[in-house]
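User: My collaborator sent over this chain with a note saying "see what the structure looks like." That's all I know about it. Can you take a look?
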Amino acid sequence: MRALDRVASWLGYGKIPAQERAAFGRSFLAAIQSRLTQDWVTTNQSADAALKYDVKTMRDRARDLERSENYVRRYFKLLENNVLGANGVGLQMKIREAAKNAKGQFVERYDARANSIIEAAFYKWNRREFCDYCQNYSWPDLQRLALRSTARDGGVMFRKHYSQDNPFRFAIEPLEIDHLDVDFNTTPTQGTMVKMGVEYQGARVVAYHIKRAHPGEQFQYVASGVWRERVPAKEIIHLFMPERIGQSVGAPWVHSAVMGLRHLAKYSEAEVVAARSSAAKMGFLVPNSTAAPPGYTGATDSSGNKYMEVEPGSIEQLPFGYDFKAFDPTHPNSAFKDFVKAQLREISAGLGVSYTSLANDLEAVNFSSIRAGLLEEREEWKAIQRWFVERFVQPVFEEWLLMSLTAGAVTDGVLTLPVNKFDKFNAPEFKPRRWDWVDPISDMQASVLAVEKGFKSRRQIIAEAGGDVEDVFADIAADDDLAEQHGLDFSADAKNEANTTAAMPKGSNDTGKGVSVDNTKEVNT
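Assistant: Without extra context I'll predict from the sequence alone. Here is the result:
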């Protein structure tokens, strides 16, 4: 009996048909054990078990690369500029209320006054003396720190404070992820477990065990005797991007590219040093068989090394008993450029950005290729924007709104919004940055056509560009009022009339002579 048939019999199956025997004997190529895979060591660990001994090393290496390597700094700048832009994630309130229209029917419309009151109060809270518990960073600063820290360190923490001296009764304190005691693991009670500093009750996070001082800080306050405290989870925002289910802490986003970045940096350094050596040395003086001790009476440096002074256009006579051996290395070699480009393409794939963006190399791109690359890359930025808003911006806003309404700080001086309508007022729409296209005229024409044909609204077009339709309309109305005060007319009809008048023969306008304006317009038409 064949081996497969014996196994099938032992498992309770009948004889395996020949048709199925071949399929039964095959396995996934990724799981084949052979001499080519014997050095591929794998483990069946949970997410936290895999991170437990490596996360601090990865964090330190990512920080070192940020300090010293240009491409890593470039990636973090790309991340900040594309996810947040210059002003961070913006806010537009979308509070609606029921009202009667001209026909006496109840319809929903935007509550413009409540929207503007909340937006004004929130932008006031954005100042560093209100939003940051330590009064060091503004709200856009905190957003940039949160994003960069998460990408570089794998995570960041913010502690909520409800200070009475703050008119909004709410502020947040940024804490580097090092404050989380990832080496603290215990089971204090039945059903409770502390894993890498995160306390669980069942599958739910209930607390964090926080070190009072940064473990790497060299300038410490007087010790209070308590160097680690248990902080309830509702007082902490732990920002990280999980990659596996059950993950307690995050890994640096650059972890898969760390080794490539390090090797590339060292290779570039070696090439630069070799090129410097090539440019600094011309050759060597080698004693030959006719040299007699001491054999050389020429110039020597302070270390006793023999040298020759060489000037442009000069011809030197070698000292007796010495031959000249030229030093002609080939650094930087011709393969340097292509090798660096290949390495950066691999690194950019691991970082989720395009090669042209990471290397700042637009040498070989055209309109179609750069547009395709940007479309793919911007989907990555949009995914990060959505995660950032859901995990950080929105929780902060909701906590601020609740505490500010409770404190009576959301007011325009006449109307103070009540806290009992929190559910109604909690209707934000967050506005991450958006991007202009390489050919904005074509995209603008497409947007105009979409509005004209009813496929999109003006509100939607403006929102996709990161704007607020109410602000845009208000600005347009203000521009029209100002132009009217100065006697200016920028309307399309005025421009057409001005162009027609400019095309008329001299003496035909303002005199009643020659061709009239109306007739000229008809002729031109």
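A starting point for your reply to your collaborator: Confidence is low (pLDDT under 50) at residues 509-525.
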